[in-house]
Specification:
β15, α9 and β16 form a beta-alpha-beta unit. The chain is globular and about 60 Å long. Strands 3, 5, 6, 9, 10, 17 and 18 form a seven-stranded mixed β-sheet that branches. Strands 13-12-11-14-15-16 form a six-stranded parallel β-sheet, with helices on both faces. It is an alpha/beta fold. It is built from twelve helices and 18 strands.
């Protein structure tokens, strides 16, 4: 089968790989769509993502497709079912799992990170990780379920209440999802900070009350002009020290600052403890998607969450390395890989 195999930093090869076989409790999925994630970029650049990757490995953890084969003990699914997966498989027996904090599992299997994933024509996964797509959900939308599930965990930690004021920093795919989720959580006003005009335009269409160019406009003055004088939550979706510092600066008293964007592992930020003390800020982070996949699926299938407006292009596997290596291309929006193309 045609696959994109990661061999190390900046070494991704499209090659023929053996077809996976289903064990008793496994399901083989014919991949129809697989999203290109910021984690994939970090891995391609030689950095650690959410999990360690040992080459050679087929990357890709945001995918949906059609069941091609089921194992002998699988009863809830059958060939032909349209499905997506939760890529993070927990052991259920370690201390974090038994304490209800499954996303800190000490023996986690990560499809597309610790084991082969979805940048291939076929992928085998344990049946516990498979979810049926709703009737209104396309394969491309199904591939977005995992990032939505991650965002849901982050938005839960933000504790947004009806009437709150929320600022989202970064208008990429994650920021545009967070914008919508903040709205659904009850925020009265949501501002989007994004330097690229086309992304600001999408943000406005998706419900942002104000879209600010943080490079050429005075952010604090613009927020004040639109009545956002007490920002309750700032969600940073860029993953850069400068934007994390900006999030702390514009947060209001008793605000939650959610550091959602993934920085490089070695990056550091300078903070002023007095500023955090003076405003009683809560600095939070969000790690993967513990048990939020079904909620994400239901939101997408209901039509209440738009996961399509931020997609730039659907491409074949041959384009994957170019996308991973080109930040200018990725700035245009979310890319989906279709192994059939």
């Amino acid at each position: 089968m045609k696959s994109a195999v990661f061999y190390g930093k900046h070494d991704l090869r499209i090659e023929d790989y053996p077809m996976p076989k289903a064990g008793a409790h496994d399901i083989v999925i014919q991949v129809k769509a697989c999203g290109v994630c910021g984690t994939d970029v970090h891995i391609y650049d030689g950095d650690k993502g959410a999990a360690e990757v040992t080459p050679p490995t087929i990357l890709g953890h945001e995918f949906a497709g059609v069941i091609a084969e089921v194992g002998s003990e699988v009863t809830g699914y059958q060939p032909g079912d349209r499905v997506c997966i939760d890529p993070n498989c927990y052991c259920g027996t370690c201390e974090p799992c038994r304490s209800g904090e499954v996303h800190f599992c000490e023996h986690m299997i990560g499809y597309g990170t610790t084991v082969n994933g979805g940048f291939a024509e076929y992928c085998v996964v344990n049946e516990s990780q498979v979810y049926k797509l709703g009737t209104n959900t396309t394969f491309e939308q199904g591939a977005m379920t995992e990032p939505v599930a991650c965002c849901l965990h982050g938005i839960d930690l933000c504790s947004i209440r009806p009437g709150h004021q929320v600022v989202v920093i970064g208008g990429g795919m994650i920021g545009l999802l967070m914008l919508q989720l903040a709205r659904l959580a009850g925020a009265a006003k949501v501002a989007l900070l994004e330097p690229i005009e086309s992304k600001r335009e999408v943000g406005k269409e998706l419900g942002a009350d104000i879209c600010i160019d943080p490079i050429h406009e005075n952010v604090k003055a613009k927020l004040k002009e639109h009545g956002m004088t007490w920002v309750n939550t700032v969600i940073e979706c860029v993953g850069r020290p400068a934007t994390i510092a900006q999030a702390i600066e514009i947060a209001g008293p008793k605000a939650v600052v959610m550091m959602f964007g993934l920085t490089k592992p070695e990056e550091e930020i300078a903070i002023k403890p007095f500023e955090i003390f003076q405003k009683e800020l809560e600095l939070k982070a969000s790690y993967i998607n513990p048990l939020t996949q079904k909620r994400a699926l239901d939101l997408i299938d209901s039509g209440r969450l738009d996961v399509s407006s931020m997609v730039a292009q659907v491409c074949g596997l041959e384009k994957l390395e170019e996308i991973l290596a080109n930040p200018e291309a990725r700035a245009k929006g979310k890319y989906i890989i279709s192994p059939e193309m």
